[in-house]
Amino acid sequence: MADKLRVVITDCQKEVKIPTGIRMLIRRCCHAILESESFKGSAEIGVTFTDDNEFQKLSEEYLGMTTDEAVISLPAGENGEFDVDKVTGAKQLGSIVISVKKAVDQSVAYDHSFQREMAYLTAHGVLGLLGYSYDGALDRVSMREKEEWALYQLGLPASSSYI
């Protein structure tokens, strides 16, 4: 389990008012993933809420393409090796960027709450920071099981699209 976890959340969009409790939910979700992965030591994760236009610009800049996804992970390390903040000793895991408008649209499309969608996107993003990917069918299933386990730990029911 992570000794200490710092999650820095920045809201850079104006389209969607972020409901009370979302920031705490995101912090709890980050913690649930790190705990389920038996992450050792202190960690820091950045989470940025953005609009679709900025999201696509960042996707193009960092991934070299636009995407239909609502979250991108920008890991700060590779193969479990991360930069360490010299002052705090925390491992810098990287940043997650979430398109909030797309999260709203997906929550409607998948018929579940905005809270569940934001938690799912956060779980997916943190796993991406830890090196997981959706490259193959088995990777997808493994990652999806980890995402759903974290949401279960947070008391968020499985979506009908997964069951």
Short description:
By secondary structure, the chain is α/β, with parallel strands linked by helices.
What labels would you give this structure?
5 helices; alpha/beta; globular; 22% strand; single chain; Collagenase (Catalytic Domain); 163 residues
CATH topology: Collagenase (Catalytic Domain)
Question: What is the top-level CATH class?
Answer: Alpha Beta
Query: Helix segment count?
Result: 5
Strand content: 15-25%
CATH architectural category: 3-Layer(aba) Sandwich
CATH-defined superfamily? Metalloproteases ("zincins"), catalytic domain
Radius of gyration: 15 Å
Distance between the termini: 29 Å
Mean pLDDT: 92
What do you see in this structure?
There is one protein chain. The protein has helices at residues 22-36, 52-63, 100-109, 114-129, 137-153, and strands at 2-11, 41-50, 71-75, 83-84, 91-99. Strands 1, 2, 3, 4 and 5 form a 5-stranded mixed sheet that branches. The longest helix is centred in the last third of the chain and has 17 residues, at 137-153. It is an alpha/beta fold. The protein has a single domain (2-153), classed as Collagenase (Catalytic Domain), CATH 3.40.390.30. The model has no long low-confidence stretch (mean pLDDT 92). The two termini are 29 Å apart. The protein is globular, with a radius of gyration of 15 Å. 43% of the residues lie in helices and 22% in strands. β1, α1 (22-36) and β2 (41-50) form a beta-alpha-beta unit. The chain contains 5 helices and 5 strands, in the order βαβαβββααα.
Please render the helix and strand layout as text.
Elements: E1 2-11, H1 22-36, E2 41-50, H2 52-63, E3 71-75, E4 83-84, E5 91-99, H3 100-109, H4 114-129, H5 137-153
Helix pairs in contact: 1-4, 1-5, 3-4, 4-5
